[in-house]
Amino acid sequence: MRAHPRTGGSRFVSAGFGAHPAKPGTPRGSALLTPCDAQRPAERWLVIDRKVYDISRFHRRHPGGSRVISHYAGQDATDPFIAFHLDKTLVKKYMNPLLIGELAPDQPSFEPSKNKKLVEDFRELRATVEKMGLLKPNRTFFLLHLCHILVLDVAAWLTIWYFGSSTVPFIFSALLLGTVQAQAGWLQHDFGHLSVFSESKWNHWVHKFVIGHLKGAPASWWNHLHFQHHAKPNCFRKDPDVNMHPLFFALGKKLSVELGEQKKKFMPYNHQHKYFFIIGPPALVPLYFQWYIFYFVVQRKQWVDLAWMLTFYIRFFLTYLPLLGVKGILGLHLLVRFIESNWFVWITQMNHIPMHIDYDKNVDWFSTQLQATCNVRQSLFNDWFSGHLNFQIEHHLFPTMPRHNYWKVAPLVKSLCAKHGIEYHCKPLLTAFADIVYSLKDSGELWLDAYLHK
């Protein structure tokens, strides 16, 4: 495909394909979008609304992180750009210096790997969502959610203060604090996705408070990982949430068979559905996240995040140390992280591990999200327990949408799925939990068969 550059020189760029100098004989003042084997590490181009941008240097300064924008190098990023940014007009002003050309008028706007009609229909759905006001938040909803977290936090302290530190009040207080951590996790997720305020800066500031002061974790770490996950869900080497493959687990049918054919065995994957109960839900937060986040902020010099994290630990120790002593407070903290970890892992993985996991195939935004996500049936409990991530499909399609509006857009998404013959997965909560284990068992057996016989 040809493109008209705004600057001198010629390049090859492609959707999913790389940026290379033009072949001899290519007229100066043109650029070709053609497949190539790989993109040069120093050059990163992408397309938004038929305009070609050179992000080779900018990616390091990208507010959402270097990797998330780099995952779209060589691809059309129009739909993810629309999905992730609130004030697109403002953002485009900062993009103008990166503009190096436009697709030629006779060149198609859609890559061959993408369903043109589905892309058009989804963009029409997006316009409908905006007209319906489904991207506008009800701030009272989030204020009440914050208040209920603070009430639970105070109730946990009052329980030990009034009833003492014997076993029953100790465990009850830990359950309350575990609930605080889980629910604060869902609330920081809202601010991190820019879902509460109309201006990004207010979301960022409150996000630091919620994740830093209420949870003791850094906002920069969450942004670094989570935006990549949303940009390329279940895409190996692009979604950090599937980085446990292959060191700890064999994930996805194709990747598991590939691992077996390569005769790689880092773990006994045919038993992974069993050891998941040991190194998965109970261990992720207390044995990994709890310590890695400190390394992350120090290594990246995120001193503001570190300061917010320290306020959490200072508050926790000052309030509970007089009541429990050193051993008691360390035991309480570990138990709370254990509860939080189980809650977090089961909820976040039920929507993704049982779904399609593969390398990035550069398919359209709608297909990318639908093949990697599934929903859990709606109920008041499921909504609260999962932070509305039981509507994972709608959340992934519209990441800045306030969660209290997911149920309103769900019928429209179902209709679009039906129109294009795409399965809309929705299941009961316990079935979703069980499917994590079943999918690990299946992929482990596929690995073993390929390891032994292929």
TrEMBL record:
<dbReference type="Pfam" id="PF00487">
    <property type="entry name" value="FA_desaturase"/>
</dbReference>
<keyword id="KW-0472">Membrane</keyword>
<comment type="pathway">
    <text>Lipid metabolism; polyunsaturated fatty acid biosynthesis.</text>
</comment>
<dbReference type="Pfam" id="PF00173">
    <property type="entry name" value="Cyt-b5"/>
</dbReference>
<keyword id="KW-0275">Fatty acid biosynthesis</keyword>
<protein>
    <submittedName>
        <fullName>Fatty acid desaturase 1</fullName>
    </submittedName>
</protein>
<keyword id="KW-0444">Lipid biosynthesis</keyword>
<feature type="domain" description="Cytochrome b5 heme-binding">
    <location>
        <begin position="45"/>
        <end position="104"/>
    </location>
</feature>
<keyword id="KW-0443">Lipid metabolism</keyword>
<feature type="region of interest" description="Disordered">
    <location>
        <begin position="1"/>
        <end position="30"/>
    </location>
</feature>
<keyword id="KW-1133">Transmembrane helix</keyword>
<dbReference type="InterPro" id="IPR001199">
    <property type="entry name" value="Cyt_B5-like_heme/steroid-bd"/>
</dbReference>
<keyword id="KW-0276">Fatty acid metabolism</keyword>
<dbReference type="GO" id="GO:0006636">
    <property type="term" value="P:unsaturated fatty acid biosynthetic process"/>
</dbReference>
<feature type="transmembrane region" description="Helical">
    <location>
        <begin position="275"/>
        <end position="297"/>
    </location>
</feature>
<feature type="transmembrane region" description="Helical">
    <location>
        <begin position="141"/>
        <end position="164"/>
    </location>
</feature>
<dbReference type="InterPro" id="IPR005804">
    <property type="entry name" value="FA_desaturase_dom"/>
</dbReference>
<dbReference type="GO" id="GO:0016717">
    <property type="term" value="F:oxidoreductase activity, acting on paired donors, with oxidation of a pair of donors resulting in the reduction of molecular oxygen to two molecules of water"/>
</dbReference>
<dbReference type="InterPro" id="IPR012171">
    <property type="entry name" value="Fatty_acid_desaturase"/>
</dbReference>
<keyword id="KW-0812">Transmembrane</keyword>
<feature type="transmembrane region" description="Helical">
    <location>
        <begin position="317"/>
        <end position="336"/>
    </location>
</feature>
<dbReference type="InterPro" id="IPR036400">
    <property type="entry name" value="Cyt_B5-like_heme/steroid_sf"/>
</dbReference>
<dbReference type="GO" id="GO:0016020">
    <property type="term" value="C:membrane"/>
</dbReference>
